[in-house]
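haha ok so turns out i had the wrong file open the whole time. this is the CORRECT one, sorry everyone. sequence first:
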Amino acid sequence: MIRAVQLIVGMEVHVELATRSKMFSRVASPAHPETYSRHGVPGHQDSRHGVPGHQDSRHGVPGHIEPNTLIDPVVLALPGALPVMNLAAVELSMMVGLALGCSVAPYSKWDRKSYFYADLPKNYQISQYDLPLCFDGRVSLPPIGTDGRIDFEALARGADAATGPRGPQSETGRGGRDIGIIRAHLEEDAGKLLHEMPGGSAGGRAGDGCSYADYNRAGTPLLEIVTQPDFRSAEECVVFAQMLRNICRFLGASEGVMQRGHMRFEPNINCILTLDDGRTIRTPIVEVKNLNSFKSLKGAIEFELREQPLRWQRDGIEFAPGTKTTRGWDDVTLATFVQREKEEAHDYRYFPDPDLPPVVVSEEWRDRVAARVPELPLSRARRFIADYALSPKEAAALTEERDDCLFYEAVIDAAADRGVERSRAGRIAANFMLQNGLKRANERSRAIALSAKQPGAAAEDSEADSRHGPMDHQALVSGLGIGPEQIGGIIALREAGKLSAAGADELFGILCGPEPSAEGFAYETPGRGGSEPAGAEPEAVATRRGLIIIVDDAALDAWCDAAIAAEPASVAAFKEGKAAALGRIVGTAMKLAAGKADAKTVRERLERKLAG
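then structure:
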C-alpha cells in the first residue's frame, strides 16, 4: 500500500516575444500589440465562417486576424528564402534571462529540430539545442498564502531588496524556496491547425471534413524557459507562472495575454511514492502540453497528483528511460488524456543550422542589455512598503501593471518637486491611485467593455484567474488622460490646505477629461461643466472652477453659525456629550461652503464655538 505521495514538477514555459517582426523574417508578428491594430478587423463579418469578428475588450483592440495574412516566403519555406535573425528578440531574451538570474552565454548557436507536422512548413523548427542563449539561473518563490496566492504580508515581514547573484534586477532574494532555471533558449513558434473553424463548425468549412493550417503564428519569436524539477505543489507552479508573466510584462518582453497564446505552460509531472514497507517508487514523467491559463495549469497538476499513484497500482510501470508520455488537458472533463509517447532528443535529428551564424555576446553587449532591465515587481513592492509605509495589499496592487507602477512613481516625483515630503507624497499618491484613480479607471473600462460588445459574437474562453475577470478591459490609471504632474499638483494643493478632500476628488475628475459612454463616444460627467485641455495646471483649473478653499475667517464663521442654527438637535446632543453628533453639523457647514472649506478647519471652528 502507498503510505505517502510526494509531487515533483519541472516547468517548461513558452513565451511569445512582443517584437514587431518574426524571429527570422520581416513580416509582422502577431505577438506585438500593434499588429492587431493594423491587421485586425473590428466588427468584421467573416463571410467564410459566418461569424462576426470579435473584440478583445481587455486591450481594446480587435481579437481576430484573417488566417495566413502574416506570412512571407521565409515563413512558408519557399525555395531560396533565407532566415535573418531578429536582434530585438535576442535582446529581449537576454533581459528575461538576466531577470531570472541566468548567465548569458558568450556563444550560442541555432539548430534545426526536425519533425513532420502540417503546422511546420519547413519540416524543421529553428531552435537552440546544446548551446542555449541563457542558462543556470535561480529565482526564489515568494511566500504563498493559504489562498494559493503570493502572501505580500509575509514578503514584507521577511524579505529585503533582491539580493541575487546577478544584481538587484533579478527576482532573487528571501521568500520561498529557490527554483533552478536550467536554460532559456530562443526558437520560432509553429503555426496552428484549425480542426474546428471559428463559429464552431467542426471539420473545417461547413463541416467539409478538412483541417486548415493557419501560418500567422509560424515564425513568431518564442522563448522557452526550462526549470529544474523543484516544485512540490500545484500552487507553487501557479505562483511561479504568475510571477514570470509579470516579469515578462514589466520588461516589455511579452504582452502576456493568455487568450492569444502569448504564454503556454508545460509541466513535467511525476511522483515519489513511499510504500508501507519503506520502499520508494518513482512514477513515469507526464508532460502536459500547451496549457494557456493558470486555472488549467493548476487543474492538470492536481489531476496527475491524484491519478499517477492509481496508474502505478494498475500497471506497475515505474520511471525509466522511454516511459515518459505526453498528455493534453481537457477543460470540460477536467482530466488529462494521452497524446503520444515522448520523443527523445535523437528523434528530432538536431544539427546546426547552416543558414544562420552563431550568436556571439560580448561583455559590453551583455552589460548594455542588463542596464535596460528595470527594478522588477516583487522588488518594487518591497521597496514601496519600506519607503512609503504602504500596506502589502496596496503595494501588490500598484506593482501589478507596469504602466501604473511607473505612473505612481512619476506622481511621487511631481509631488516632491512641489515641496511635499517624499515619503508622505508616496502615501498620498497611493491613496489617489487606488481610490480616486482605480474607481474612475474601472468605470471607464466598463464603458469601453460595453461599447465593444457586438450582438451575435461568439463567447471567448475566459481567463477566469486573472485579476480583472473574463476578458475585462484593463483598468489602467495611467490611461485616464490625467498626467502624473497634474496628480502631483493636486496632492501639493491638498497638502497646502488649498483643496478639500471633495475638491481634490472633483478636480481629479475634471482633469481626467470626458468619460466614454456605453455607445463608445465621450460624454461630460454631470456637474463638471466640461473638461479641461490636456496638461492643464491644477491650481489654475481649481481657481477657475471655484474649488480653492476660502480661508476668510468671516466666511468660515458665517458657515459655522448657519450650520449651528440649522441643526439644533445635533447641537444639543453634542453638548450632552455625544461627540458623534458633531459630524452632522460639520456636514451641514461643508454643504453650505460648497466644498470651499477644509473639513478639519470647520470641525475645529465648530468645536470652539460649541464649547464657548
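The mean pLDDT is 84.
again sry for the mixup
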